[in-house]
Amino acid sequence: xxxxxxxxxxxxxxxxxxxxxxxxxxxxxxxxxxxxxxxxxxxxxxxxxxxxxxxxxxxxxxxxxxxxxxxxxxxxxxxxxxxxxxxxxxxxxxxxxxxxxxxxxxxxxxxxxxxxxxxxxxxxxxxxxxxxxxxxxxxxxxxxxxxxxxxxxxxxxxxxxxxxxxxxxxxxxxxxxxxxxxxxxxxxxxxxxxxxxxxxxxxxxxxxxxxxxxxxxxxxxxxxxxxxxxxxxxxxxxxxxxxxxxxxxxxxxxxxxxxxxxxxxxxxxxxxxxxxxxxxxxxxxxxxxxxxxxxxxxxxxxxxxxxxxxxxxxxxxxxxxxxxxxxxxxxxxxxxxxxxxxxxxxxxxxxxxxxxxxxxxxxxxxxxxxxxx
Length: 373
Known about the structure:
The protein is mainly α and 373 residues long. It is 64% helix and 0% strand.
């Protein structure tokens, strides 16, 4: 009897986890159309007090609150934006949360001009925005009821903000860094490099070194501002969320779909591939770091979505976008736990890709690699 229940639970768990990135065609399954053989059932009233005042919701809510508390602690302990710039300068030591201004718009190699990254971000933003608008026009605003569209929108915002930051970075590099280099070269030419010989006929080399460095500025980096930290946080949140939606869709959901109840559409492919491709291209071009503790923002992102769903269903009785969120099942706390644990490998995959990129480039291009350790 126990083995039968456990087998049924495992089967249902795999199916329910697969739905966590349902595409637009699956949204249609929730409608009253008779063209689909599977529809969710509304067995319980989600607005009833008995639906929420029970041990299932208590354990699920406790798990969500504990993960949010742990995530908040990691942010408070390691994040640098909540510390003043004077405090960061006085410490004069990099921490896990350190971030410099040019990391948001610079490239991973000195030979790649930041303008290439700017062009890539603008192109990605326009493509993602076009797909998002097309999805809204085709299926309506109800698509934002789903985690997939939340993530796709966040990736679009990331590339839009990144385009603005890259525009600033290219302007800064052209007008401040490049112009100061030209001025320094001009002043060195005007001053000349002639050094009068001493009595023994040799030039006074210490003075030569001193003169050649008169106009050189110290190679210091400015700490990132608020927008730089926001941009870094969105980048790492998108990384985990995109892997979660795309891998689960292609490796768990799609292989078990049959042509009788599901047909893959162009928009489904785009929603579960284009964002990942663009984000991987972004990660290969930029020089942004990827500290592990910012996994906390990925956890908070999903937790906010879950609480959003709880609030809606407490006010209005309607179907759940993902069946594992349904609190009427006695296995609900286990399903919440399983989806929470699934975040770890999804975030770890992208972190490993970034780590391998840094390792590979540092060995192939040791003199041109710009990643700050």
